[in-house]
Amino acid sequence: MRITSNKPISGVQGRAAKKRPSSGAEQFTPDTGSEAVQTSQTAGGSAIQGMDALLALQEVDSLSERRSKATRHGHTLLDTLEAVRTDLLAGLVSEERLERLAQQVSQRQTSGDPEVDSVLDEIELRVKVELAKLGKFTD
Question: What are the phi and psi torsion angles at 19 (to 5°)?
Fold first, then answer.
């Protein structure tokens, strides 16, 4: 959504400066209010349109934030799987690492993007298979 009506709202306009007398002595003259000051009205409808634009921007930000959280979740799962693979090659599988992996797989949040969600589904399926092989996943 493109915002095109960015007109500044003008407030009450000030009075024009009065000319000082040209004589050397300055005199104080009180303002009697004889001059009429023009004011402009503010547009009430433009504030509502601006609010709609802000709400739309907040929704877009929320979607990108959810996508980045889901991406970080996938990277964390892959990093932990890599550590489990390293443990398996060394011959010692850390129980703590397996518990952490099982906990991470249960903390899934949808991203709102079908492509990101499908990749996360594949990563989580691989994690569940590895946990089941090691006897740590029961669903």
Answer: -80, 140
